[in-house]
Amino acid sequence: MGKDLLFVNDRIEKACEKYPDADFGQVTDLGALVSRLQEVDFLDITTIPDEIRQNSKFVWFKLPGGDYKIFIGKKEYAQIGLNLLGKYEITLALNDKPIFSEHKPAFLSTAFAIADSLIRANRPDAVPYLLSKAGWRGEPATTKQIRTMDMLGISYPENITKGHASMLIGQHFVRK
């Protein structure tokens, strides 16, 4: 709960900096504040960071420590992280078994290209679900997504889409 409050507080502070003339005084509780900010695009939790959007067509998450991670399936993910030598290390885990790329690129763009190609080569069936512009992302959230968000205590707008729900659930686990 404390991490969630800090996360929301950080987003509110950023929104206040970006929109100094906005009036936040009419909101009576935290859930209403988050919903209101999402409605007026002050708090866009689903925004993909520029460095990801510019270098990959997939929906990666930026981890608190600066690494990047994408969930491919149950016990399957790819991760990009900067090592102590200033090179990016790429890990692909399939069925909870990590496979390390021997490539250690110096540029983030190259690391994303390698990681994306590893995903395409090893899990081509997952690619349609990982694309940031996939059509399913605009469809209404599923009952299972709604139940999962409720169980995890994630606040969400009334007419949430599958893509938005997927991002919120993914971000919940990334922050853990």
Describe the structure.
With 176 residues, the chain is an alpha+beta fold. The chain has two domains: 1-44, no CATH class; 50-130, no CATH class. Helices cover 42% and strands 15% of the residues. It has helices at residues 2-18, 30-39, 50-53, 108-122, 127-130, 143-152, 162-175; strands spanning 61-62, 68-73, 76-82, 88-94, 97-100. A five-stranded antiparallel beta sheet has the order 1-2-3-4-5, sandwiched between helices. The radius of gyration is 17 Å and the shape is globular. The N and C termini lie close together (11 Å).
Which helices and strands appear, and what pairs or packs with what?
Layout: H1 2-18, H2 30-39, H3 50-53, E1 61-62, E2 68-73, E3 76-82, E4 88-94, E5 97-100, H4 108-122, H5 127-130, H6 143-152, H7 162-175
Antiparallel strand pairs: 1-2, 2-3, 3-4, 4-5
Helix pairs in contact: 6-7
> What does the largest sheet look like?
5 strands, antiparallel
Order of helices and strands: HHHEEEEEHHHH
Using only CA atoms, what is the Rg?
17 Å
- Order of strands, main sheet, comes to 1-2-3-4-5
Gap between N and C termini? 11 Å
What's a quick, concise take on this entry?
This protein is of the alpha+beta class. It has helices at residues 2-18, 30-39, 50-53, 108-122, 127-130, 143-152, 162-175, and strands at residues 61-62, 68-73, 76-82, 88-94, 97-100. A hairpin with a 2-residue loop joins strand 2 and strand 3 (76-82).
Which features would summarize this protein structure in a list?
5 strands; globular; alpha+beta; single chain; five-stranded antiparallel sheet; 176 residues; 7 helices
